[in-house]
Amino acid sequence: MKHKKLLTVILFTALIITLAACAGNDIPPEEPPIIQSEPAPENITPAPQDVTPNATPRPMPPDAFTEPDDYRFDGVSWDEWNAIMEQYIVPPDEVVQIGDYTIEDGKLARIKLGAEIEIANIPNGVTKINLGVFQFQAKLREVNMPDSVTEIDSRAFSNCTSLTTVRFSENLTEVGAGVFAGCTSLESISIPASLKRLGGTMFKDCTSLKEVNLSEGLEHIGRGTFEGCTALESIHIPDSVTTIGNTAFADCTNLKTISLPADVEFGHSVFNGTHPDLQIITRPVVREAEE
Length: 291
Hints:
By secondary structure, this protein is of the alpha/beta class. Helices cover about 10% and strands about 20% of the residues. It contains 2 helices and 20 strands. The protein has helices at about 1-25, 80-85; strands spanning about 70-75, 75, 95-100, 100-105, 105-110, 120, 130, 140-145, 150, 165, 175, 190, 195-200, 210-215, 220, 235, 245, 255-260, 265, 280-285. The strands form 6 sheets. A 6-stranded mixed sheet has the order 3-4-5-7-9-11, with no helix packed on it. The radius of gyration is 36 Å and the shape is elongated.
């Protein structure tokens, strides 16, 4: 009898506990209190944001490298420069995409990442070829420029080791440094009459360059322009040239004949390392007096 009473008490107690638990589930959870944050003081400057893929690279001067073989631009290595250019995105209304070329405000800014170009037909209407656009394009054999091109920036075609043919714009007026430096397959070149100055190291280490045609109207040959052109044997300097920069023909080991105006002004070491039998032929020139 006692066992029956004890069992009844236990069952009754369990029932009460179960009912209490079910009743508790109907109570909605207490919502966390709303905490209103105070506005930030106006005199606090926001923290700078990280650089995003849409960031525009800082401008870099075209001739900022220190030596012809030093691929640094304003302290930025060539690999870093490529990484910046991969991130460079501009608003669509400022960009024209033609094949592998990206043109911004009339300037050939860059080529498609990974493109291997053999013949570069620059689109008509392009006025400038930007810094290093075709540099190290190992398969590039030919470059054709429309007459709309007036400027070529530094190292635009440097180290294109298969390049053999270049057709310049007849309206070209400005070239940067090292534009064709290291183009070891280039054998001949003709400079248009529109160009007054040859950029420094423009054809440096073009070791196959044999024929150079300089037009009347050219006034200045830059520092190291033909330095290391070991296949060059002779060259005629037009009467219009008045100055030749430092080391312009240095290490042209086969240069045997050069004809130039008698009153041309030289920098230092212009003919260092040329052929030991180099013959310099000077011509008298009558120049018009400057007003």
